[in-house]
Design goal:
By secondary structure, this protein is α/β, with parallel strands linked by helices. It has 17 helices and 20 strands.
């Protein structure tokens, strides 16, 4: 039996003792470099990924990534009731067995997902007679847990039982059995597998709000009623549209609040939708990486959070494509190449700043070569170490050097735009953003100051709600009266870092 570390042991750094020694040896031999799972161990976390059998069997590149980077596999569908008992009177566990064999071959653990879920009731099962229905549910739970008792130490016992208001949602389970089906499921699961860790799993419970409050109430109620619950799975399917902007300090406080109840936390189904963010492809992927960085960091920093699982390996096979629409929500792209989000996971696990916010993004941010002007004449002297551009013959205060930022701006992302500028003392200086998009033409002040006469830094944060179709987006320096020259050097754009309180203890 492979064990994948219980909470306390992981967070006390005893991971090596809990995982079979063979597991450690193999990781060390074949991975002298930094696979994600090796980095995660140092951070006291385990990493998981959801897999489906056809992909594991049919796509070697994809399977290799699943084997190399993750401690634990979650069968994406193979253990669900409707999948196992798609035919009445027969349990079909072939898909699961293939995943279990793959996990065994790669010294990986398995996460049991999901025993009781309204959306996975076999089609043949009649809802007319509660006793027949309940007996079938009890059989399913008993058979699934006992078949795999030695293999699976964590189970999502109940999935998605809460509504958006935090109260139990209507469902056929509630209709046929009443809301207590949930408590019954946990009690039966404990009786079946006394050693297993039993989880309640749901979506939209990562960030503060009525549903997150409902989750806290549910855990407390179960504990008060002596119904066994060991952990909560926060699915973490993220969507970075403006209205979904995430309250990261609030998320951390929520994780702490859950941890204080004594339950273990898994971020159980992470993916980040970006397809419908207005902006450039590159910016969307950076926005995604920024969110993944913050999410993994929050888990690393909160002791109760022990496990992060991604809902799929590469963008080629994500449930989002079929459930919602084409998207790129995962760590590897369609060709199984690592995306910015992959490197963000590395940085978060290492506890260092995300590289996306410490480096001028090469090929994405502006350079002096690409600077143009909104008016007057542009003179470039790019050879010397003091490379600069100067706008002369300015006939309006808004004439000044400009950079095209359309290629890397995106919703869900804040950029820090900076340059050194020089003009006559006492003149106003301002970074302005000119956006031409579905909302028309807009001029937004980014930052302003007063010229000292010497070279000085002009720096501001860019965060724009773009409206498709986006035509042009430029940032330019303006302000001095006509007739004064305006010079610019060392222009750079970096993604604004997560505030340090979000990523440090
Ligand atoms: C999804 C699978 O990824 C799809 O392949 C399947 O068609 C539907 O279910 N919440 C859950 C997961 O708990 O089981 C869901 O998985 C995604 C949402």
């Amino acid at each position: 039996m492979r064990r994948w570390a219980s909470t306390a042991a992981v967070r006390l750094g005893l991971l090596g003792l809990c995982l079979g020694s063979g597991w450690r040896a193999q990781a060390a031999e074949s991975e002298p470099d930094s696979s994600l799972r090796v980095l995660a161990e140092r951070a006291g976390l385990t990493l998981g990924v959801a897999v489906d059998t056809p992909v594991l069997n049919g796509d070697p590149a994809h399977a290799a990534l699943a084997a190399r980077h993750f401690h634990v596999l979650t069968p994406e569908n193979a253990l669900k009731w409707g999948h196992v008992e798609w035919q009445q009177g027969r349990r079909d566990t072939r898909a699961f067995e293939a995943i279990a064999a793959f996990a065994a071959a790669n010294s990986q653990g398995l996460r049991g997902h999901a025993l009781v879920w309204d959306r996975e009731i076999p089609a043949w099962l009649s809802r007319d007679d509660p006793r027949v229905f309940d007996a079938a549910l009890a059989d399913h739970l008993q058979a699934t847990m006992s078949d795999h008792r030695d293999l699976i130490e964590v189970w999502d016992v109940v999935n998605e039982a809460l509504g958006p208001d935090g109260h139990r949602a209507p469902s056929s389970l509630v209709e046929v059995l009443g809301p207590s089906y949930l408590e019954t499921a946990f009690l039966r699961a404990r009786a079946e597998a006394p050693q297993a860790r039993l989880f309640y799993n749901d979506y939209a419970v990562l960030w503060p709000g009525p549903k997150a409050d409902g989750l806290v109430r549910l855990v407390k109620a179960l504990q008060q009623a002596h119904v066994p619950i060991d952990g909560v799975g926060l699915q973490s399917h993220l969507h970075l549209v403006p209205e979904g902007r995430l309250d990261w300090p609030g998320i951390r406080a929520h994780l702490r609040r859950l941890g204080a109840l004594g339950v273990e936390i898994h971020l159980s189904e992470v993916d980040v939708r970006v397809a419908d963010l207005a902006g450039a492809d590159q910016g969307r992927l950076l926005a995604q990486a920024d969110a993944v960085y913050r999410l993994v960091s929050v888990c690393r920093l909160e002791p109760a959070c022990t496990h992060v699982a991604f809902w799929g390996v590469s963008d080629r096979y994500s449930w989002i494509d079929t459930a919602i629409g084409p998207d790129d929500p995962l760590l590897w792209d369609e060709q199984a190449a690592p995306k910015p989000a992959y490197f963000a996971v590395q940085d978060a696990l290492l506890g260092r700043p995300w590289r996306g916010c410490t480096t001028n993004i090469s090929g994405v941010g502006p350079s002096l070569e690409t600077v143009t002007t909104t008016g007057g004449r542009l003179r470039r002297s790019l050879e010397s170490s003091q490379a600069e551009v100067v706008v002369t013959d300015r006939t309006a205060s808004w004439h000044g050097p400009q950079v095209d930022v359309r290629a890397w701006l995106s919703e869900g992302l804040t950029f820090r735009l900076s340059a050194e500028v020089q003009t006559a003392e006492g003149m106003p200086l301002q970074w302005t953003l000119r956006v031409v998009d579905g909302g028309g033409t807009r001029f937004l002040k980014v930052t302003e100051t007063v010229a000292t006469g010497a070279w000085q830094s002009l720096e501001g944060l860019l965060q724009v709600d773009l409206q498709p179709p986006v035509e042009t987006v430029h940032a330019y320096v303006e302000g001095p009266n006509a007739g004064h020259d305006l010079a610019l050097r060392s222009v750079s754009a970096t993604v604004a870092c997560a505030p340090s309180e979000a990523t440090s203890p």
